[in-house]
């Protein structure tokens, strides 16, 4: 990877889409502010009215991307996401409303886009982007905008783009910082030229664990929509070979340039991202094994039942913050926040261990509990089984066979 300070300008890429038919009178009225733009004009609007885009994710980034692409007049939108709207989404995912809680995000997003423009064609796919469907979906669209919230899907999008030659607009957000770039196979470097390897799934907390400033999603999502429009219309200078970084806390923008890594092997298949996606989905690894120090929800329920039957004490530890337990908790869990575990190590557990020989730690998604497990593992007695609940309480809510209603446990 070669990275250096951004200098100068580069010529705009050629238009991605041929112009469609002449605009109807109602379109001229609707898009009048575009028509008066230098270098955009009627021809640019006709390109938008002839373009199709796949948006990966209908969450924090997907919401402003979908909203602004629809408002700009793109002809066809496909949105793919397998999640449902939750109350905690509404702080940043501006397409969704309180009345949409519990609905599939793609259905809520489709309805919101159609309220904005009833003439737009919107396809809602209530599923994940996977190695099985990615190539076909990428081939069907002029451009893909990746608003995914995990590393595996981002690399899947990159690799599918490289295999199909599809331009990809990429963005990430975390806490107060967001990043945007454009990857167009054959016209500039790709994600793997910048970051060659897929990071471990738990190497960076997700938004649920690490938090995110809600309005940052609008800033970064709007920038991603802007890049998509520039590529479709062939205007401006797209972020090819450039990484735009915005720090909302410091109110600072910076740009890095990077180039093709000539030594990097070309992407020829989706084998690596298949393994990464399986790990995100809580499946077994390539050898069919699961991590001995992680439990999925089914294993956790069975483990808890077996421990009860054998009269063995099982300690379930919630490492989230106190305010999170006000919302819900696994019944009979003990609260020891991650900060305390990191500071005290095994001492944080020893005082309340009692007769327990099995410890299961959990958080929102499994990231913080994995860190707590690793912190405790060095000093834990050999007789103690120490595990992290994969997927955290999010997975437990969805798949636990328990009749418990997620009532708060004891502190």
Task: Detail the topology: elements first, then pairings.
Blueprint: E1 2-5, H1 25-30, H2 32-35, H3 41-48, E2 52-56, H4 62-72, E3 76-80, H5 105-116, E4 121-125, H6 134-140, E5 143-146, H7 151-164, E6 168-174, E7 177-183, H8 191-194, H9 207-210, H10 214-233, E8 242-247, E9 252-259, H11 271-280, E10 294-295, H12 297-309, E11 314-318, H13 322-325, E12 334-335, H14 338-344, H15 347-350, E13 358-362, H16 367-377, E14 385-389, H17 392-399
Parallel strand pairs: 2-3, 2-5, 3-4, 5-6, 10-14, 11-12, 11-13, 13-14
Antiparallel strand pairs: 1-9, 6-7, 7-8, 8-9
Number of domains: 2
Strand order, largest beta sheet: 1-9-8-7-6-5-2-3-4
Uncertain parts: 2-11, 282-292, 401-411
Q: Count every helix, treating DSSP H or I runs of 4 or more residues as helices.
A: 17
**The CATH homologous superfamily of the largest domain:** NAD(P)-binding Rossmann-like Domain
Number of strands: 14
* C-alpha-based Rg, rounded: 24 Å
Helix content: 25-40%
Q: Strand count, sense and closure of the main sheet?
A: 9 strands, mixed
Mean pLDDT: 86
Q: Would you mind describing this structure in some detail?
A:
This protein has helices at 25-30, 32-35, 41-48, 62-72, 105-116, 134-140, 151-164, 191-194, 207-210, 214-233, 271-280, 297-309, 322-325, 338-344, 347-350, 367-377, 392-399, and strands at 2-5, 52-56, 76-80, 121-125, 143-146, 168-174, 177-183, 242-247, 252-259, 294-295, 314-318, 334-335, 358-362, 385-389. The strands form two sheets. Strands 1-9-8-7-6-5-2-3-4 form a nine-stranded mixed sheet, with helices on both faces. The chain has two domains: 2-16 and 51-280, Rossmann fold; 294-399, Oxidized Rhodanese, domain 1, CATH 3.40.250.10. The protein is of the alpha/beta class and 411 residues long. It starts with a strand and ends in a 12-residue tail after the last helix. It has 17 helices and 14 strands. The relative contact order is 0.11. The chain is 36% helix and 17% strand.
């Amino acid at each position: 990877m070669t990275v250096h300070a951004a200098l100068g300008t580069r010529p705009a890429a050629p238009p991605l889409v041929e112009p469609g038919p002449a605009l109807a009178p109602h379109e001229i009225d609707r898009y009048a502010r575009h028509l008066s733009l230098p270098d955009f004009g009627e021809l640019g609007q006709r390109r938008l009215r002839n373009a199709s885009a796949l948006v990966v994710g209908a969450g924090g980034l997907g919401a402003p991307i979908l909203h602004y692409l629809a408002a700009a007049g793109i002809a066809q939108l496909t949105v793919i996401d397998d999640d449902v709207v939750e109350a905690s989404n509404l702080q940043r995912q501006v397409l969704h409303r309180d009345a949409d809680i519990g609905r599939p995000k793609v259905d809520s997003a489709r309805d919101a886009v159609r309220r904005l423009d009833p003439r737009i064609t919107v396809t809602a796919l209530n599923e994940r982007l996977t190695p099985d469907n990615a190539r076909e979906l990428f081939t069907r669209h002029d451009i893909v905008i990746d608003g995914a919230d995990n590393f595996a899907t981002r690399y899947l999008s990159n690799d599918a783009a490289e295999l199909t030659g599809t331009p990809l607009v990429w963005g990430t957000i975390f806490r107060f910082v967001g990043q945007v770039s454009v990857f167009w196979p054959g016209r500039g470097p790709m994600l793997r030229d910048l970051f060659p390897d897929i990071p471990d799934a738990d190497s960076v907390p997700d938004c649920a664990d690490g938090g995110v400033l809600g309005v940052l999603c609008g800033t970064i999502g709007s920038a991603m929509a802007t890049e998509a429009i520039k590529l479709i219309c062939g205007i401006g200078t797209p972020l090819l070979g450039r990484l735009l970084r915005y720090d909302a806390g410091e109110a600072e923008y910076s740009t890095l340039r990077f180039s093709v890594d000539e030594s990097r092997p070309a992407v020829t298949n989706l084998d690596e991202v298949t393994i990464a996606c399986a790990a995100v989905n809580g499946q077994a690894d390539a050898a069919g094994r699961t991590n001995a120090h992680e439990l999925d929800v089914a294993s956790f329920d069975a483990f808890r039942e077996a421990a009860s039957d054998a009269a063995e004490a099982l300690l379930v530890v919630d490492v989230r913050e106190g305010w999170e337990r006000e919302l819900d908790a696994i019944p009979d869990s003990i609260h020891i926040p991650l900060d305390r575990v990191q500071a005290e190590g095994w001492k944080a557990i020893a005082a309340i261990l009692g007769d327990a020989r099995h410890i299961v730690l959990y958080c929102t998604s499994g990231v913080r509990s994995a860190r707590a497990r690793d912190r405790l593992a060095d000093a834990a007695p050999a007789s103690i089984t120490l595990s992290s609940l994969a997927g955290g309480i999010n997975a437990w809510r969805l798949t636990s066979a328990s009749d418990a209603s997620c009532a708060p446990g004891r502190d």
